[in-house]
Amino acid sequence: MERGPVEVLCLAFPLGVSPERMTDVLRRPVDQQAVRLIDLVFLLRDDDGVLEARDVEHEMFRIPELAGLTFDPHTLLSGEDLETFAVSLPPDQQAVVAVIEHAWARDVSRQLDDLGAELAFYARIPEADVTAAYAAERS
Q1: DSSP conformation class of 35
Q2: Pfam families, per this entry (predicted)?
Q3: 47: alpha, beta or left, given left = phi > 0 and alpha = psi -120 to 50?
Q4: What distance in Å separates the CA atoms of residue 53 and residue 67, rounded to the nearest whole number?
Q5: Is 137:129 a contact under the CB 8 Å cutoff?
Q6: Please, are residues 40 and 98 in contact by the beta-carbon 8 Å criterion?
Q7: Domain-by-domain residue ranges, the chain?
């Protein structure tokens, strides 16, 4: 199976946001087939503030709100990966860690390969920086 580019996202949320609400931010791009979920792990805090990793592969059948979420389960995140994310979270946050494939880019990747081309540079620019650049351009 051909794959598009794959990224790991650690989305941090304030305490009190449920796992269902955390995954809602991913549901639309998954449903529109722009991205494909490969691995999904919650880092949730218990009442004592201790983070617990909960792999969605094992939770989907116990969390009704996750039903229908298209998921191609593979365990790509290691315990070491999750520990790295966990120590970066302040005490008032929890997270969902998602491995996503940019499904929309499969054809682009194939065309680049066919031409012997490669991605020479990649940068992700935060939305706030883009907004500031547009504002500066207008002034």
Answers
A1: S
A2: DUF6325
A3: alpha
A4: 20
A5: no
A6: yes
A7: 6-114
Q: φ and ψ at 63, to 5 degrees?
A: -115, 100
Q: Which residues on adjacent β-strands are paired with residue 129?
A: none
- Looking only at the bridges linking them, the beta strands covering 93-101 and 36-45 are antiparallel
DSSP of 47-98, one letter per residue?
Answer: TTS-EEEEEHHHHTTT-GGGTT----------HHHHHHHHHHS-TTEEEEEE
CB 95 within 8 A of CB 85: yes
CB 57 within 8 A of CB 109: no
Q: Which of 110, 40, 43, 104 lies closest to 72, judged by CA?
A: 40
Tens digit of each residue's pLDDT, the chain (139 residues): 577 788 999 999 999 898 888 888 888 898 898 998 888 888 988 888 888 888 877 665 566 666 667 777 777 888 899 999 999 999 999 999 999 999 888 888 888 889 999 888 888 888 999 999 999 988 8
